[in-house]
Specification:
Helices cover about 25% and strands about 25% of the residues. It is of the alpha+beta class. The longest helix has 14 residues, at about 55-70. Bound molecules: ligand PPE. Ligand PPE binds near residues 168, 197, 198 and 259.
């Protein structure tokens, strides 16, 4: 699906029109992958209207990623946070996806980036279910990728850098070419790592397992949310090395991610997982997660940042579906 035009995109401190959100072809990040990004969802909650899910944690990860890459970000945390809220409001969005991107901009080329400015942009758009609407209920068919995730001490996996996504693209293209919805990458030691754009959880005998942060996985915000939710529901969660074969004999396996949310996996390498459909534990966690992000249950962890104050929300005109041209 091509991009549907949005009203405004935030660029270096200003909200600009969609058509004006442009960069030069000699931008450093375009040549060397010197960018750091985030993917954040905003949900139209029952309790307080549009609210951004775990905004502070996403922004903290962006600052952390920039620090790892020695990229000084010329905005305070609070200004950055406000900018995210402004982008949602400027587009009059309810459910949407936010994409902050900090990158080495236009100045000079050559690997050494110090002279290039660190530019920042925040776009927002409507993004439906990442692996399809059906996937949430029925699960997806995936393969173990022939590509490994990056080795420690090559690309820092804790940084959400654009360059890491060339590896993700290899995984995802290979999966698609072979008719799978997604690939699961192993780490360089052959242990289960993550999907091209998701963390992964296994369930066996009512216990959850997920690969540890030292195993080259992205420290997923959804991963963290699911660990908390699973604990609250009384499940034990282990962060430990996962051998490939434990995927095949798991009762349930599911992906987590901002875009993917909680997506069940029903087969891996054509081996049926459990009963070959969404399992009971996955469904329980999914339900709780969706209830949380939908504002149907109290925000006990302060994970939701409303876009509007209570008063502004009450005054806000109802969003009507855009006319189809
Ligand atoms: N691992 C990878 C490699 C990854 O890209 C993501 C998010 C995750 C794990 C889960 O992290 P979190 O979103 O904090 O729970 N992938 C983002 C980009 C997907 C895309 O295709 O673009 C996302 O889900 O927003």
């Amino acid at each position: 699906m091509p991009f549907e035009e949005v009203k405004k995109i935030w660029m270096n401190g200003r909200l600009v029109d969609f058509a004006d959100a442009k960069i030069h072809v000699l931008t450093h990040a375009l040549h060397y992958g010197s960018g750091i990004f985030e993917g954040i969802r905003c949900y139209n909650t029952k309790s307080s209207g549009p609210a951004i899910f775990r905004l502070d944690e996403h922004l903290r990860r962006l600052y952390d990623s920039c620090k790892i890459y020695r990229m000084p970000l010329p905005y305070t945390f609070d200004d950055f946070k406000q900018a995210c809220l402004d982008v949602v409001a400027a587009n009059n969005f309810e459910d949407c996806y936010l994409r902050p991107l900090a990158y080495r901009g236009f100045h000079s080329l050559g690997v050494y980036p110090a002279a290039c400015p660190v530019d920042l942009t925040i776009a927002a758009w409507k993004w439906g279910k990442y692996l399809g609407v059906e996937a949430i209920e029925h699960g997806v068919d995936v393969r173990v990728s022939s590509w490994s995730r990056m080795a420690p001490n090559t690309f820092p996996a804790m940084a959400k850098a654009t360059a890491n996504y060339m590896n993700s693209i290899l995984i995802r293209e290979e999966a698609a070419a072979d008719g799978y919805a997604e690939g699961i990458a192993l780490d360089v030691n052959g242990y289960v790592c993550e999907g091209s754009g998701e963390n992964i959880f296994l369930v066996r005998d009512g216990k959850l397992t997920t690969p540890p942060l030292g195993g080259s996985v992205l420290p997923g915000i959804t991963r963290d949310s699911v660990i908390r939710i699973a604990h609250d529901l009384g499940f034990e969660v282990l962060e430990t090395l996962v051998p490939r074969e434990s995927l095949y004999i798991a009762d349930e396996v599911f992906f987590t991610g901002t875009a993917a949310e909680v997506t069940p996996i029903r087969s891996i390498d054509r081996i049926s997982i459990g009963e070959g459909r969404r399992g009971r534990v996955t469904e329980m966690i999914q339900k709780e997660y969706f209830a949380y992000i939908g504002g149907e249950i109290p925000d006990r962890y302060n994970w939701l940042t409303p876009v509007y104050t209570e008063k502004a929300q009450a005054r806000r005109p109802k969003v009507v579906a855009a006319a189809v041209r």
